[in-house]
Amino acid sequence: MAQDGGGRSGSLRARLRAAPVLSDPEAAAARLEDVAPDFAPGFLNPEIRALLLGLADHSPFLWQLVARTPDRLAALIDAEPEAAHAEIVARQRTAGREVDHALLATNLRRNRAEHALLVALADIGGLWSLAEVTAALSDFADASVRAAADAMLLQAAGAGRFLPRHMDDPQVGSGLVVLALGKHGAGELNYSSDIDLVVFFDAEAAPLKADVSPTPFFTKLAQGMAKLLQERTADGYVHRVDYRLRPDPGSTPAALSLNAAYLYYENLGQNWERAAYIKARAIAGDIPAGEAFLANLRPFVWRKYFDFASIADVHAMKRQIHAVRGHDTIAVAGHDIKLGRGGIREIEFFVQTQQLVFGGRRPELRGRGTVAMLAGLTRDGWIDATARDDLTAAYDFLRTVEHRLQMVRDEQTQRLPQEPEELARFARFAGFADRSAFEAALLHHARRVQGHYAMLFEAEPDLSSDVGDLVFSGTGDDPATLATLSKLGFREPERAVETVRGWHFGRRPAVRTPRAREVLTELVPALMQALGGTAQPDAALDTLDRAFARMPAALELLTILRSNERLRLLFADLLGTAPRLAETVAFSPHVLDAVIDRDFAEATTDAADLAAQFRNRLGQPSDHEDFLDRSRDAARQLRFLTGARLLSGILSPEEAGRAFTGIADAVIGTTLERIADAFFAEHGAVPGGRMAILGLGRLGSRQLTADSDLDLVILYDFDPADRMSAGPKPLDAAVAYNRLAQRLVASLTVPTRRGHLYEVDLRLRPGGGQGPVAVQWRGFRTYHAGEAELWEHMALTRARVIAGDAELAADLDRDIRAIVGREREAAEVHRAVHAMRMLVEREKGDRGALDLKLAPGGLLDLDFLAQALVLAHAHRLPDLIGLGACAVFARAADAGLLAAGEAEALMEAYRTFDAVLHWQRLMVEGDSAAASPVTLSRLAVAMGAPDAARLVAQLDDQRHAVRVLFDHLLSD
Q: What is the pLDDT of residue 669?
């Protein structure tokens, strides 16, 4: 143990020179009188009496130690404290050899109690300096950990799972590496601190039984060590153990292999972890192996050159710690002397950040001790003597106050009492005459710390805000950050902290590069504030986390968000309300630029205009692969703009459907044109050949949503007398057009590095999924003239030619009108359509109240009803052909097929359901009918409903009314 007094000796009694000021002398005296008979006559001299009265008055924990075993106190008082410390540490070090684990646990805890009492007596009595106190606490913790390692290894040896090379010292050559980090590693442990440990193992060196797997073995060993040290019994505990400074503690076992640790720090290590390893020290297991690991880790901790990227990251870390204005205000009552303004953390940060920046070139700045490194920074010229002296004095003061706080009840606390009376009592325990004297001393030191700390970062850009602390570095949850997140609207702040911490640990591929994490560190406080402005901050954060999991890289997005507050707020809004749009932004961040362009409000739903915009964005692709990439980018940008305009109220859901459809038309037409040109250049033209693309379903009726599939039928025609193409690689016409159709479908559906375009469904073609991909026009006409079932004619009521040969398109349009307009018996149509709807209901079911497509009384009922009206009556009312469902209901009412009230109810329900479907497909990831609270809340806001419950009630009422009309109108 370090001694700054050098050569001092004598008993604790002989060297006592301080005692606390009493707050309640009478109560303290009464407590002392209760135990006084247990002491020898003359034991309680004035100095001992004053010290014990102080313990009785101020520390329930220490007084319990005194009262429980007065003889132990007497022995310590009359011993030389340094010798007593050495004897207790030696006893603790060898305690792990005890085979009876119950007795072992008892011995460890009793040694700790005796040592805690000794340290308190030497500290409060003025015998030991701060350095001696912290060294003694650290020495004892080292011994405890080594004892626990001995105990677990010997237990494993007894079970035959571990084959020690040296039974008298099982840790030698064991493959076990235990490092102490934080204050423990630095030899600066505080009185009631957790001990920060990291457990690694060398799988090749570990002498394990042949069938024992290293990771489970050492993980169980680490867990056993922690339990042995921190489990509370009637004798108390030894140390609280914290393993969270290991690589990514949220997703790794308690013990990791050295190889895994090297890989992590080499690829994903963060600057706060560099700072943590400044203080790392091998304390148990195979000490040489631990020291070798730390030596090999030096390039990670100590960069050879001035590390300006790290400087930026350090600045960002500092801004996370102090993302709040009003730094100069310190309310002493309730102040956190570690994390608060002018506290211990600021002194440590002041030292460690400069060590990180300069220690790579200056080995003398690589020391573990805070005070020693203040002196080193002064010698090297990085700080002046005033800063050194002020910070050293403040560190001594604050750490001593910290120890007094923890000595009261043996709690790991750094927060001063809130109530004035309690604060006054504590001031006296700390040796001050009254509260005002203590407050003056605290403010004196804290303001000097603040001043030097602020000067260190005076050149940094100011990214602070008024919201409060936002700290995500390290592994522990900062209480002030949790409070800030709650204030921002996060309902699960602990989970939010863990999510952001996971980004820093590299759990998401998109943010694993050092540069991405540096930008992220600086961006996070502003980003969390932006997310807090959304209706559901937790859901918005989850959406972003999922996007990071899917993205290959996020640096471009993070850089854009960091530099533009308006885009940052917009992106947060998208995360909170339209996850599908946010996912687009994550994949192509520059689409955000279009939203702040002045032309954003100038929306069009005209197919020709959208086709021109698509071709303009497409540019001049260099080859087919480039075309596929560019077409995906162009379509994504246009669909994003459409969704954003719907979200902004510039487009209605119905208008958005036309715009989404116009984009799809443009993609299909342009793709067909390009691949057909390339195909026929290779194989030659087919004599009399024609090809056209028929769109059905919502594509045909111009009602596509943000994620609709494309229902297509691909048709072709040729001269049957001349079937072969006339090119260098001739093909039969049927083969040629089917191959061309396959290339078209592949071009629309294949994922590329630029993502996905559309899903295509060809099952509405004659033959369904069994026949050729492309259908000959003559076969199509023949099929629908005789073989086709009524449901296939129903599908044709929404058919529309999307692209291809103009003459074949005109022929198809004429044929479809003839098929749909064929004379049919209305009652038979009604019966067949009703039976078909019931069959679908039985076979497919629905996914609940928000499945507005399949649920009874939903869109399928309405579409089927409209199609029944068309097929039953178009032979005498041909203007029904080609109309959308609402227009069919209106025309049917004009013709007397529906009552006006019925038509109005059907149209209102259709528009409502269709609008909800559009919002669902835009807003909800995954199952759009999933009725989660977040989903319902988003939909209610979008639909203008007072709340989710009333929206669901309204939809249920309308669906019920539609089903009643559906059954009535299609009944016999």
A: 97
